[in-house]
Amino acid sequence: MKDNISVLVSSCDKYSFLWNDFQKLFNKYWKLNTHNILVSETKKLNADNFTSVTCDSDLWGTRILNALDNVETKYVFFILEDYFFHSEITNEQISWHTDYLDEVSGNKILIAESSPRAYSLQHIGDSLYKFSDNSDYLTSLQPGIWRTDWLRSIIDKNYDPWQFEVQGTNSIKGKDNRVYINIQPSPIYYNVIRKQNYIPEVWGQLKWNDFKVKEDLLDLESYIESLQR
Question: Is the pTM of this model over 0.90?
Answer without folding.
Answer: yes
